[in-house]
Amino acid sequence: MRMARAPRPGLPAAPRLVLATIALGAVLVLVLYLLRGILLPFVVGIAAAYALDPLADWLERHGLRRGAATLLITVVFFASLVLMVLVLLPVAVEQAVGLAAKLPGYLDELRMRLMELIERLERQNVVEGGSVEGLASRFAQQALAYVGAAITNVVQSSLVVLNLLSLVFITPIVTFYLLRDWDRLVAAVRSIVPPRHRPVARRIATEIDQVLAGFLRGQGMVCAFLALFYAAGLMLVGLDYGAIIGFLTGLFSFIPYVGMFVGVAVGLTVAIFQFGAVLPVALVAIVFAVGQFIEGNFLTPKVVGARIRLHEVWVIFAVLAGTAVFGLVGTFLATPVAAVIAVLVRFGVERWRRSDYFRDAAAVPQAPPPPQ
Predict the structure, then answer these.
(1) 3-class DSSP state for residue 276?
(2) Band (126; pLDDT cuts 50, 70, 90)
(3) 158-162, 179-183, 247-251, 287-291: least confidently modelled range
(4) Per-residue pLDDT for 364 more than 60?
(5) Nearest 5°: CA angle at 208, between 359 and 76?
(6) Plot region of 196 (φ>0 → left; ψ -120 to 50 → alpha; else → beta)
(7) Cβ partners under 8 Å of residue 323, min gap 6
(8) Do 252 and 261 form a contact (C-beta atoms < 8 A)?
């Protein structure tokens, strides 16, 4: 009679599952990094399908079949986008070309004024040493050269043309198929989760859904309002290229802090060289300040709420890291990915605090103080 083999020593099931999940995540990140140049249309398609899925569910509950509801939503959604682009594109292109032609001159004049200020400070012995002007000049030249090289590389890159064509032709197809099969994809993912882990997985998925919905749907409405508000406000003030500056500032507010900072910097720079007076520049600054006040005190609390629950420093780091690693795709994905990571980290910390090891360590009495 053969004796049963003793079980081989090894890791328990839970740590093995954690290690397997980490390894799978690392492989996924590597694949995404290698394919980052072609991800933009698929990322946009996934985001559009996720945002439009509640509408498809609503139409399905009211008697429309899923395929017909998907086709109707996709056609109406992208037809509206095309119509909006056709209406706004001529104005946007005209103002963007004019701004791109004048912005280098604004930067050169700004550099000249900065050099004049440095020379004045050196003449007044405010700054000691004779190398300040040289350092400032070299810094300005290197900064302008870096910006120019970056713009040239972006414009000349064949991936730009590929991404634009992909957004036009591939994104609607990706959106249609994902939106049509969304419920089946969710069911397939649910089916591979072990039954005893499904309550926990459902809780994590629900929290992630709340975070992503709060960011994608809520932040999308906030950005649309800010784009219209800034464009109208800057045009009323009389700022040159105010429509395109305001529209892009509101649109790129989707990228927290970075989009707003760049828009305000460009708007104030154009205002300073256009008006040359304090009052019009102050009016431009007031437009941005009022927009930020409305967004921070009314729109975001009501529309987005506190569902994202991310610290400001973590958001800034995520945006910079995502841009550095994945480029434009990483810029747009940084905040939602950071929010998902935050959900998982909070869940892990909660489980850690409930673990036997943590409770046993917390229950150890502290050593009495030494006698005096």
Answers:
(1) coil
(2) very low
(3) 158-162
(4) no
(5) 175
(6) alpha
(7) 330, 331, 334
(8) no
